[in-house]
Amino acid sequence: MNCQSIEDVKKIVKEKDISFIQFWFTDILGVLKSFAITPSELDEGLTEGMGFDGSSIEGFARIEESDMIAKPDPTTFQLVPWRGGERPVARMFCDILNPDGTPYKGGARHVLKRLLERVAKEGLTYYVGPELEYFYFKDNTCTEFLDTGGYFDARPLDMGANLRRETIFALQSTDVRVEYSHHEVAPSQHEIDLRFDEGLKMADKTMTYRVIVKEVARQNGVYATFMPKPVFGENGSGMHVHQSLFKGDRNV
Q: For the segment 199-238, what is each residue's pLDDT rounded down to a tens digit?
């Protein structure tokens, strides 16, 4: 879904009879935060942003300076794949602003934007390609594996292939391009690799990836976790990050 402006968003919300629009942002630790508005509030939300209590968000404001604004980026508008069917739900990533409309310096998206602006001044584009590993467990109360597979194992040892397949379809529905997927080293450990993209776009895609992995697992009655070391004696999960700087079409 390719929205480039506020008008594009409003048009799609009306055409698809979207019921709620979720505003997404992260706290200082990278934990996803979200609240939803109805289409009747969309005009104000897109032009002025929506206020919230920043003192209740980890790493944001102190209690005496708690008012903050979440202003969505219309270019990040996508339907969320786990709320399809009639009257679907959409989401947009937000920039965090102070009450006077200036960017909040502690907002993760703003920090990345500032760094990307410095790179752009050198005539360069920063690209990122992450490899995120995670585990599937029976539920959120234990670390019971779903399989005994290892690195690059196939069925019947790899019992997470169907979960990965559903996850990739959901990712593709939000315009997240996937390179490949496979079973990782530890039992019930998996990896889906995303095609590299510009830094800010990939940051948004990475947050989307994490949510979709967890939601697809939940809908199938299992639990997905990105914890770095959930099981003693087994390989932990990491996120390798391929980074490159391009000048035009040339990798410098």
A: 999 999 999 999 999 999 999 999 999 999 999 999 999 9
Distance CA(214)–CA(77), nearest Å, equals 20
In order of 26, 49, 65, 66, 186, the CA distances from 59 in angstroms are 10, 20, 13, 12, 34
- Helix pair angle (161-173, 199-219), 10° resolution: 130
Backbone angles phi, psi at 82, to 5 degrees: -90, 5
**Side-chain half-sphere of 8: how many Cα atoms within 13 Å?**
12
pTM: 0.91
User: Where in the chain are the domains?
Assistant: 6-104, 125-251
| Interatomic CA distance for residues 51 and 29, integer angstroms | 21
Q: What is the pLDDT of residues 5-41, one digit of tens each?
A: 999 999 999 999 999 999 999 988 888 999 999 999 9
Q: Which residues contact 107 (CB under 8 A, 6 or more apart)?
A: 25, 95, 96
In this structure, are residues 171 and 212 in contact, taking their beta carbons and an 8 Å threshold?
Answer: yes
Residue 188 φ/ψ region, left for φ over 0, alpha for ψ in the -120 to 50 degree band, beta for the rest? left
Please indicate whether the domains covering 6-104 and 125-251 agree at the CATH topology level.
Answer: no
Could you say which architecture CATH assigns to the domain 125-251?
Answer: 2-Layer Sandwich (3.30)
Q: How far apart are CA 174 and CA 125, in angstroms?
A: 23
Query: Is CATH 3.10.20.70 the right assignment for the domain spanning 6-104?
Result: yes
